[in-house]
Amino acid sequence: MITPEKPELAEILEVKQETHDTKTFTARFVDEKRQKKFFFVPGKFMMVTVFGFGEIPISISSSPYKTGSMDFTVVNVGNVTNAMHSLKKGDKLGLRGPFGNGFPMQKFRKKNILFVSGGCGIAPLRSAIYAAREKKGEFGRTELMFGCKSPENILFNKEIRKWGEQGISVHKTVDKPSPKWSGNIGVVTSLFKNSKLPPENTVVLLCGPPTMIHFALIELRKKGFKDNQMFASLERMMQCGVGYCSHCNIGNKYACIDGPIFNAADLKELPVREE
Amino acid sequence: MNYSLKKSGLQTFLKTLTKKFQVIVPALNDSGIATFQEFEGQEIYLGNERLSSPKKFFRPSKEKIFSFSSKGASASVKPVFDKTKRLIFGIRPCDTHALNALDELFIRYYGDDQFYSARRKNTLLIALQCTEACENGFCQSLGTSQAVGADLVLIERGNEFFVRPETERGKSLLGKKLFRQTSDAEPSPKISCNLSLETQNIAGNLYKNFKSPVWKQEAERCLSCTSCTQVCPTCYCYITDDEFEFGSSTESSRFRFLDSCQLLRFTKVAGNHVFRESRAARLRQFVLHKLSYYFENHGIQLCVGCGRCISVCPTKISLVEIANKIQKQALEAGK
Fold first, then answer.
1. Which residues of B are less than 8 Å from A6 in CB distance?
2. Strand B179-182 to strand B2-6: parallel, antiparallel, or no bridges (unpaired)?
3. A75 touching B, CB under 8 A?
4. What is the pLDDT of residues A230-257, one digit of tens each?
5. Alpha carbon A258 to its chain's center
6. Which of B77, B269, B280 is facing A94, going by the closest CB pair?
7. What is the pTM of this model?
8. N or C: which end of chain B has fewer CB within 10 A?
């Protein structure tokens, strides 16, 4: 019998400091058979336990084609993430999952992909970007619009440069520039004018803070994107991942089992912003 | 075959059951409030005040679910199940329906929540049919006035109980000394609920009126005190948290705590964004979860019409009043 809430032991293989408050943890199940059977679709998430401190939902930020381990990119913002940041190579985690629906990558074949991300929302999109890069021939052109608080907060800088060299058109913006910053200043929607992808044959993948997603969808609609072309990953509080705890309830849907990826057409029907 | 049990034999009956079970009965506590407590020969409360439900024996407010140990290489995760053989006497029909509604999610829907189903499997239910209306009940509107899934159903009749066994497990409890076979017709006490809920298309109508001004009007006096979610026999939302075993840095446990959608922190995510910031949004979540969302997902109402949330509300907010107001608007608009 399966106990859906039982965490399985995993080992941290590597910890990488990304920015002053963000680290990427590479981990794998201690049970080799479990790790071999493990696969996921970009956009899915794991429930990660830091023993003694609690459990939180974290999306997988590594390529689905990278078997043998998985990455979690984690900002130090709460109790559990704070405890997680003190962990080192060789330390144990508890893992459950993967949960959620993930991005329907199959549907995106032969289409251009526009990635829109705010802050650490880049984490699940990184997984999708790697998936799109791996099967380059299957997708059209790709663009990334990436907004961050300040230049110091930009995650995956080196990787992003590499993606740019490999043909992904990357546009970055910050809210608060540093003296050295010569790029765009403003929210992520201010980058949309740079997009060269024709709305007819393009899908949009979004992940970021709720306010960003709300306004990005409005601006994208103005540019001619239809709701059924846009897929947003929603953030909600979660305690179980299996539809029990009801914290991620949005209307009669649950972000953990019906999401976290929602089509913009479905979002219109749901009380995403509850005034 | 049905049976009868003299009221004077109830104490003896329960006392014999304590040999096999942890017996739980309704009895008055020090403050004169009827609660479900372990039977130790105290007087059984058969009265009309039913603020407390036996929810705590199925969804306790704090429940240990795992113990973790990480000594060296031998780290382990062990689930902790409550397998106490328990018998609950005096559960009311609405509360049996509450368990039935929870079974839908925790046993039949997604997978087996073994912490819940262990408690369910090991607990026998002796239901007590209501013979008079309670303060704010509206079970007749929701069709929850007859017990479901109990092992025995008892109906008060003068100085005895009419006993209808529902399961083999229930039948096996009936000792020959105390229980007499009877061929009498089952008594059907005539009761009429004090409140009535308009249930026609209620799930759809409430959701369609998500932006109705009623939510805000009613929520203006809400204190977010969470009393409603605490007394509700079906409120199951929980958070989990880990605690270190006292004095140890290698042994810890995971607990579930019942949570309340009436609290701000319920929808708070990293970066302090709160999705249901207004009291209106939180009150609406409570009502819609009870009467709309759950029904649309499971085909069964999560509200069982016990009316406890109404009785307990310090500012007299009534789920029935809110729902009926919106129903009136919706049904009139639909004409």
1. 66, 77, 79
2. antiparallel
3. yes
4. 999 998 999 988 889 999 999 999 999 9
5. 16
6. B77
7. 0.91
8. C
Return the domain boundaries, chain A.
8-98, 105-269
pLDDT digits (tens, 9 = 90+) for A158-185: 999 999 888 899 999 999 999 999 999 9
Fold type of domain A105-269? Rossmann fold (3.40.50)
Please name the member of B105, B112, B115 whose beta carbon is closest to the beta carbon of A1. B112
Please answer whether residues A212 and A234 qualify as being in contact, where contact means their C-beta atoms are separated by less than 8 angstroms. Answer: no
Chain B nearest C-alpha distance from A167 (Å): 33
Residue A2 has pLDDT above 60, yes or no: no
Q: What is the mean pLDDT of chain B?
A: 91
Pick B110's closest partner by Cβ from A242, A252, A274.
Answer: A242
DSSP state of B72: T
**Among B243, B271, B293, beta carbon nearest to A249:** B293
In percent, the amount of chain B with pLDDT more than 70 equals 99
CATH of segment(s) A8-98: 2.40.30.10
Rounded to whole angstroms, how far apart are CA atoms B23 and A139? 65
**Contact between chains at A237 and B267 (C-beta distance less than 8 A):** yes
Kindly list the residues from chain A whose CB atom is less than 8 angstroms away from the CB atom of residue B70. 51, 92
Tell me which chain B residues have a C-beta less than 8 angstroms from the C-beta of A3: 79, 114
Decide if A237 and B266 are in contact by the 8 Å CB cutoff: yes
Q: Please answer whether residues A257 and B297 qualify as being in contact, where contact means their C-beta atoms are separated by less than 8 angstroms.
A: no
Q: A257: which chain B residues are within 8 Å (Cβ-Cβ)?
A: 110
Chain A residue with the nearest C-alpha to that of B295 = A252
**Between residues 115 and 134 of chain A, which touch chain B (CB distance below 8 Å)?**
none
Q: Check: CB of residue B258 under 8 Å from CB of residue B252.
A: no
CA distances from A150 to A31, A49, A193, B237, B270 (A): 40, 30, 21, 38, 18
Tell me the CA end-to-end span of chain A in Å, nearest whole number. 42
- Closest by Cβ to B281, choosing from A52, A242, A275: A275
CB within 8 Å of B281: residues ≥ 6 apart: A274, A275, B215, B275
What is the total residue count of chain B? 335
pLDDT for res B74 = 65
SS3 labels along chain A: CCCCCCCEEEEEEEEEEEECCEEEEEEEECCHHHHHHCCCCCCCEEEEEECCCEEEEEEECCCCCCCCCEEEEEECCCHHHHHHHCCCCCCEEEEEEEECCCCCHHHHCCCEEEEEEEHHHHHHHHHHHHHHHHCHHHCCCEEEEEEECCHHHCCCHHHHHHHHHCCCEEEEEECCCCCCCCCEECCHHHHHHHCCCCHHHEEEEEECCHHHHHHHHHHHHHCCCCHHHEEEECCCCCCCCCCCCCCCEECCEECCCCCCEEEHHHHHHCCCCCC
